[in-house]
From TrEMBL:
Active site: H252 (proton acceptor)
Protein name as it appears in the record: Methyltransferase
Keyword check for Acetylation: no
O-methyltransferase dimerisation domain mapped to chain residues: 22-96
PANTHER family: O-METHYLTRANSFERASE CICE, PUTATIVE (AFU_ORTHOLOGUE AFUA_4G14580)-RELATED
InterPro entries, per database record: COMT-like (IPR016461), COMT_C (IPR001077), COMT_dimerisation (IPR012967), SAM-dependent_MTases_sf (IPR029063), WH-like_DNA-bd_sf (IPR036388), WH_DNA-bd_sf (IPR036390)
Keywords carried by this UniProt record: Methyltransferase, S-adenosyl-L-methionine, Transferase
Keyword Transcription regulation attributed: no
Amino acid sequence: MESAPEGIVDLPPIGPEPILRLATLVCQTEVMHAALELGVFGSLAEGSLTEPELRERLGLHERFSKDFLDALAGLGLLIRVGDRYRNAPVAGHYLVPGQGVYLGDYPRMVTASFQQAWGQLSRGLRTGKVETQPRGGFVAKSHEDQARFKVYAEVMDHLSTRVARDFAERFDWSGYKDVGDLGGARGHLAAALLEAHPHLSGYCFEPPSAERYLKGHMAELGMAGRVGFVGGDLFTDPIPEADVLVYGQVLHGWEDEERRTLVRRAHEALRPGGMLLVYDRMIDEERRDQQRLLYSLYMRLVSPMGSEYRAVDCERWLREAGFPDVRSEPLLNTHTVVVGLKSREE
Ligand SMILES: C[S@@+](CC[C@H](N)C(=O)[O-])C[C@H]1O[C@@H](n2cnc3c(N)ncnc32)[C@H](O)[C@@H]1O
């Protein structure tokens, strides 16, 4: 008897679904983009609508509309009850134009910059080089385009608010009187810490081009004058002394030698007994956390020398700089904070 042709009967023991899923992740992104572009979430701001009502209001074609709306529900952006659709809480909070906090300009922008960055991965993998701004240019560039900076800053501020709330509770601030956020963007983290602990004063250290952003943002928050601005380069300009210093997502922009320098400079600027907080999406010791590894690759693609790094390495840089008491702790499920306490004797 002839044997059956190979490949028909001999199915491989596993299916290709994980590969197919990875190859089609873009569908989810595009459905969200289209919903933002068409104004789905704005249309549902006042309450729920049926599919025909939405179709008419948004000018959708009936060949697509039902699949589209149900796909949005599947993505967690809409909720369907019976035949009516409404915004899921996350969409209601962040994706309705002109209402509350609007982050709807961010997805398109970030997807475009991701496509540009990730499109260079193979080249980067082979040559180690990608097209990016020269050393330092990455920072200056982000301040050039005001509208773009604002969109990014609003998203970054959300993370800063959550980090500040965490720090406000995690540490005992009663013995500290001031905090400096080094590379603190438009000062949001410092402002949130000062709000939680009104006895604190604080400053934000950034290149001079960031000053107008900080001043504008503080005025919007009703914190004008509370967070000082220090304009300069963290590598060359004096860092004002403080009881607590923070590097939030700053060390990931540099290489180990520069990270050591930044940590050393913070140690020098801290008063005796002071505390340094370094947070980033640090890579776990075993290097298995997929999200953090992807962020690390992304940093390699968008900055000339950046990458994420392991908490154990960061702890070592702090010890080398002279911090006798160093530990690392998880932060918000996505980040790690390395805490260094400076000796009281210095
Ligand atoms: C990724 S952002 C992080 C901002 C903020 N800490 C946060 O976590 O949202 C890095 C910040 O560090 C600042 N920065 C990087 N290198 C710097 C340098 N050499 N001198 C001053 N600021 C610097 C950049 O301007 C930028 O705002």
